[in-house]
Design brief:
Layout (H helix, E strand, L loop, with lengths): L1 H17 L3 E4 L2 E4 L1 E14 L4 E12 L4 E14 L4 E14 L6 E18 L2 E14 L11 E12 L8 E10 L5 E15 L3 E12 L7 E14 L4
Parallel strand pairs: 3-13
Antiparallel strand pairs: 1-2, 3-4, 4-5, 5-6, 6-7, 7-8, 8-9, 9-10, 10-11, 11-12, 12-13
């Protein structure tokens, strides 16, 4: 398993280094890059061993982390069907900053998703696989006005490694995005390296670096993302 984990890390690193955000056109390279920051706080309520709920607030900055990209409130529910298989639902109300074009300002969007997940352990490795369907639509705007709900399927694989006598266990993840609306298909790939630190009776604080690469368009965009996340868990009394 250690060999496979090292291979996964190597492939991820090679892709990041070998896939600059540039395209060649008539011998000229055009680069599209950005740095974003994502900051979130989540309250999780563990109803029992199988079911939990969550509410999260998140702020995302773009354009070298100087301009608000969006902020949102998300409500989630997750249920473990078996020890290895789980399902999840989520709804997100988004205020998205459109600062390009003649008409600018904050737009109201709603996104919901449904997840199917599988997890298992091999030695000190925790492996997780998730398929997600998500639907995003702009509110108060009809199809006649140019709005069409965006349907996306996401495939994610993540690996956690439990290091002895160490609280900052690393997690590595890779995720593919595919749009169902048109023939665009596979349009984005994302790699993440992160960790979480658990404070006694004070929740968990995490940090991550995320590399995201667009795969479609004349000038595919590369985004580097730095994130900080906090989560506090409440448990139902008697559980």
């Amino acid at each position: 398993m250690t060999k496979h984990f090292k291979s996964f890390l190597l492939l991820a690193a090679v892709y990041v280094l070998a896939a600059p955000a540039a395209t060649a056109q008539n011998g000229t390279y055009h680069t599209v890059r950005d740095l974003e920051s994502w900051t979130s706080a989540k309250l999780k309520y563990k109803f029992n061993k199988k079911l939990d709920f969550g509410i999260e607030e998140q702020l995302r900055l773009k354009e070298d982390a100087k301009t608000v990209d969006q902020y949102f409130t998300e409500i989630t529910a997750d249920y473990d069907i078996t020890k290895h298989v789980g399902i999840g639902l989520g709804g997100r109300y988004i205020k998205q900053n459109d600062n390009v074009g003649k008409k600018t300002g904050y737009e109201n969007h709603f996104r919901w998703n449904a997840d199917l997940a599988y997890k298992h352990k091999i030695d000190r490795f925790d492996l997780k696989y998730r398929i997600r369907y998500q639907n995003k639509d702009e509110l108060k705007k009809s199809e006649a006005q140019g709005d069409t709900a965006k349907h996306t399927v996401r495939l994610k694989v993540s690996v956690d490694y439990d290091i002895k006598n160490w609280k900052l266990d690393p997690e590595v993840a890779a995720e593919l995005f595919s749009t169902l609306n048109n023939s665009e298909g596979l349009n984005r790939v994302r790699f993440t390296l992160g960790t979480m630190y658990e404070f006694k009776k004070a929740g968990e604080l995490g940090a991550f670096y995320r590399f995201e690469k667009a795969l479609q368009g004349d000038y595919p965009k590369t985004t580097n993302i730095i994130g900080v996340q906090y989560q506090y868990t409440l448990k139902r009394k008697g559980k």
